[in-house]
Design goal:
The chain is of the alpha/beta class and 238 residues long. Helices cover 44% and strands 11% of the residues.
Length: 238
């Protein structure tokens, strides 16, 4: 199935009839970990600059997205979620004592924030009568998280790893999502931030994929391009 990541290819071969989204780093972003790291460093009288704190968090966050970590089974239960992330964050305890539990608190999905273009994009898809779904490796029920932000009515299905007993990068999770949202995989677009877990795995299930570029740290996430992809083939069909 064609990969529609490039903006130079804004029209997919097959019309898009449904859009699936990853959750973290795609529709929502985490709290400011740098501030947490710096606060802990001050308490323990550890000299650390903002740049060093940012680098430490980036190192940990990138480590959490390696194929080994993504496929570790951490998102199949809350117990494994806590154990896996706390172990990974524990790498920072040698630098700032007791930091790992504080960093794990940032994984609470209720503390995450929608990007400024999350709601407009979901509303635009709803206006176009395009079904939408969330396909996420997560150990927590994200339905209530979306409801707390007034976004629940803009999502039709939630396909969550802890409920299905399977996690990305298994194509099986995407096959389940296509069945639940009710569209053929080749007419379904998966939008995410991870080239393997959201891109290659969804493509293996027969879906079209769009992998978002890295976020600048402020402003929109770049989700408006999803609407361009949807409108391209729809417009071409007339």
């Amino acid at each position: 199935m064609r990969d529609v990541r490039s903006r130079s290819r804004a029209i997919a071969i097959t019309a898009i009839e449904a859009v699936l989204f990853d959750w973290g780093d795609t529709l929502f972003y985490p709290p400011d970990a740098t501030a947490v790291i710096l606060a802990a460093a001050r308490e323990h009288r550890v000299a650390m600059s903002a740049r060093e704190a940012q680098a430490l968090w980036r190192e940990l966050w990138d480590a959490g997205k390696t194929p080994e970590e993504v496929a570790s089974g951490r998102d199949l239960s809350r117990e494994q979620h806590r154990a896996s992330w706390t172990k990974l964050f524990g790498r920072a305890d040698a630098r700032v004592p007791g930091l790992s539990p504080r960093l794990y608190e940032l994984m609470d999905p209720y503390r995450w924030t929608p990007y400024e273009d999350t709601r407009p994009t979901l509303e635009a898809l709803r206006t176009r009568r395009i079904p939408t779904g969330i396909v996420s490796n997560h150990a927590y029920d994200l339905r209530d998280v979306f409801a707390s932000r007034g976004l629940r009515d803009l999502v039709d299905v939630f396909v969550l790893s802890f409920e299905k007993g399977v996690a990305k990068p298994s194509p099986r999770l995407f096959e389940i999502a296509a069945k639940e949202i009710g569209t053929p995989p080749e007419r379904t677009l998966m939008v995410g931030d991870h080239a393997d877990a959201d891109g290659a795995a969804a493509a293996a299930a027969g879906m079209q994929t769009y992998i978002l570029p890295m976020w600048s740290g402020s402003g929109p996430r770049g989700l408006a391009h999803v609407i361009e992809l949807v409108d391209g083939p729809r417009g071409a069909r007339g």
